[in-house]
Amino acid sequence: MNVAARALGLAPWALRLGLGLPIAAGLAGTLWPALKDHGFQSLTAWPGLPRAVALSLGTGLASTLSALVITFLLIGCLGGTRGFATFRHLLSPLLALPHAAAALGLAFLIAPSGWIARALSPWATGWSDPPDLMILNDPGGLALTAGLVAKEVPFLLLMALAALPQTDAPRRAAIAASLGYGRAMGFVLTTLPPLYARLRLPVFAVLAYGMTNVDMALILGPSLPSTLAVQITAWMAAPGLDHLPTAAAGAVVQLALVGAAMALWRLVEHLTAPLIPALALRGRRGRALDAPLSTLARSLALLIALGLGTGLAGLVVWSFAGLWQFPDALPDSLTLKTWAKAAPDLTATSLTTLGIALAASLAALGLTLATLEAEARSTRPLRLEPLIYLPLILPQIAFLPGLQILALTLGAKGNAATVAAAHLVFVLPYVWLSLAPAYRAWDARIGLTAAAMGVSPARIFWHLRLPMLLAPVLTALAVGVAVSVGQYLPSLMLGGGRVETLTTEAVALASGGNRRLIGAVALMQMALPAMGFGLALALPRLAFANRRGMLAERGPA
Amino acid sequence: MNRRTFGKTALSTLALMAVSSRLAFAADWQSILAEAKGQTVYWHAWGGDTKINDFIAFIGAEAKARHGVTLEHVKLASTADAVARVLAERDAGQTTGGAVDLIWINGENFAAMKAQGLLHGPFAPALPNWPLVDTMGKPATVTDFTLPTEGYESPWAMAQFVFEYDSAKLAAPPRTLHELAAWILANPGRFSYPQPPDYLGLTFLKQVLYGVLPDPALLQAPVDPASYDAATAPLWAFLDAIHPALWREAKAFPENEPALGQLLADGEIQISFAFNPGRASAEIAAGNLPDTVRTFVLEGGTIGNASFVAIPFNAAHQAGAQVIANLILDPAIQAAAQDPATLGFQTVLNLAALSPTDRARFDALDLGVATLSPADLGPVLLEPHASWMVKVGEDWVKRYGVTK
């Protein structure tokens, strides 16, 4: 065995360490100050605690359940139709839309002085001034829940569509249909159970995000009190570090809450699972449900696509707006002033963001490829999935404070390199999830044939497997870039507030309310991932211009 | 301002003048100028605003041309970084040749550096331009959050609390705190303030304190726990009265000054406020607010404070730093700072003390449609002792931090 091969054998361990160590250190670093310095005492003294806890649970559970139900509704009622394919194409780019930008767009759309109210005023509503209505930042967190649902449906839908082929859905649907079941009923009875089983981890990731996100909650969520995660972030950032123990105690509570919510979710799973066979035994065909349910599904799909799309369009218009007063539906004048003024800062921030994203994504890609190749060459499969999902399921707020302290003790400065290293923890899972299926599905007989002709494993990897997997490798890289660009808390905390990325900038601006600048930053925030995905699509087409078969997995060209 | 505060300020000014005459004797400005020539002064200043950065570059060009002093702007993310640097140098035993020559500073950072003996001085009263500073009319130039500056820092710009409103929608704005309260109750949903502990939100609460306390002189001393509850009762009564009529019935608050400004721009609220008398004009010029927006202050004055420069005890180029501090007080530079086209900051100088030529520089300024003239801005109330801000902020969260 040569040196390169031996190094390859270490790759899975590097991956385990690379993920496990920061998480363990982060959790320990968070727990420790919470126990040490009366963190819990000052936490319980905060009058907002009970409500903040309720908000975290309520918005997280409600948004996850709604997003899951809508996802099933879309697949069950519309899956396979032509409109569905269009919808899917519309949704895919929205995955690249960072949470903060989506929240900002929605906020401008639905606010009492927002685009909808402007479009309807004064002719339909009679409003010459915006009404004093609690739509955003409502104490119950409804706006936040709606925003989370809109952002998570595209994610769950694409995850579900990726898992669908493994469930043998078309044959199940055909059998159900031949027995006279309606489309929706047939889906629930035959496809939903195996599909859900494959969707559980993404659902938990959505639940953890919904309960603990800071960027969307800052923009759409309540402030009297805010959600627990937002308050923890405020304590972390308080000058003088006096509130660090309180923040740490809050993070421990947040972690426990997520654990409790997942346990509750599993319990409900157990209680509701028997309902499906019970439903089957009733024998209801439910054909009458199809028409109303598919109308509902269509409306919801339209609502989500329009909500996110129009919100984004609103931000774009703002970035070119001159004076734009209520109730004008469009600005008085259009100007390039915002862009011209922001250009120098925006260029620098975009370059920092891109540099961090590329560093983290390339490192993640290298580690993923090495580990997958090591797995391919070894005889037994590596069971890495639970560890890989851990950073997605653990609330960031629960281990980032600890990670920050660890970085400080190790003497890591709040610079771009530290931020990129922290991003790796969150980028790696997504790169893995998007690359591993294609990597494992590569036809091993090609490699076997080459080996039979005496080609070394390394040569098979570099000259056969990697070139043939160019498209999924580039897609995984683009996914990594998109995930890195969207990171808020890791950039903020590990950067010590000094490393400005497009997302920290957008969230900071969002609190300030300068919509023109927010529009410009949000557009750049979208543009970077979009460019990545564009390149990931275009490069293989260029490289394999004369080898159409290499693009086969993307469907007929 | 009430008589007691005034008396206190006058006293501290007198003390400064005594110091100044003594220093003028000792320090020969000409020799300082000679020593400064050829020096490079490292000015550590927050670098987050392009307008301010450009202005510092402008001062640098003037310093080079007039005195042969090179100015390097060390752009900080936070002033505390410069304080930490000086502290680290002292702990390392570096008592001369320090990296920081001049710091843009005020409030807590100044208090910390002064208390630890990290500042060079007193130097300010010995600056040739010092007599032009309006220490009587703008006591905030010698009192930094109730801490007398005692010549350890020199002012360079003033900020003052002003209200903003759209004159197209509101003809006659209220002129007293009680008229404001009456207006809020008569126009529900059209007023709000940034959620404490935001700085501007707390400043609004301090402004209310000035209006409701029988004796606002109390604010110049640290909070007395024994009398605190009784003293602040009128503040909470005032807030309890207006909250039901605030924007969103006080169930949500804007996060900070820009968010409050956005509410005014969207027409969601009709009276807003800022800690910068020139903000409204600048926003109009930028096309973010309609040109019918105007500003107003309350009878009896509004809270104001000053930004300062200070020189660390171990600064490598103390002479050069003093030349810069003096140059900033030059009427031409101060007039440039007040020009909304460059910066729009309020001058620290006493216009009455200027020569006719220099006064003409200020008279010629187009302050912008919405900016009040220095005379109309009215008296500047001193910042209360920092302990008030902390305690009132904590109590606000206890009382209003969770919606019913």
Characteristic terms for this protein:
heterodimer; A: 557 residues; mainly alpha; MetI-like fold; 2 domains; B: alpha/beta; D-Maltodextrin-Binding Protein, domain 2; 42% helix; globular
The backbone outline of chain B, from C-alpha atoms, is globular
Largest beta-sheet characterization of chain A: none
Top-tier CATH class of the largest domain in chain B: Alpha Beta
Helix amount of chain A, in percent? over 70%
CATH evolutionary superfamily of the largest domain in chain B: Periplasmic binding protein-like II
- Classify the secondary structure makeup of chain A into a structural class: mainly alpha
Proportion of beta-strand residues of chain B? 5-15%
Radius of gyration of chain A: 25 Å
Tally of individual helices of chain B: 14
What is the architecture of the largest domain in chain A at the second tier of CATH?
Answer: Orthogonal Bundle
In whole angstroms, the N-to-C terminal distance of chain B is: 38 Å
Give the chain pair forming the largest contact, with residue counts.
A-B, 34 and 37 residues
Oligomer: heterodimer
Mean pLDDT of chain A: 88
Tell how many strands the DSSP assignment of chain B holds.
11
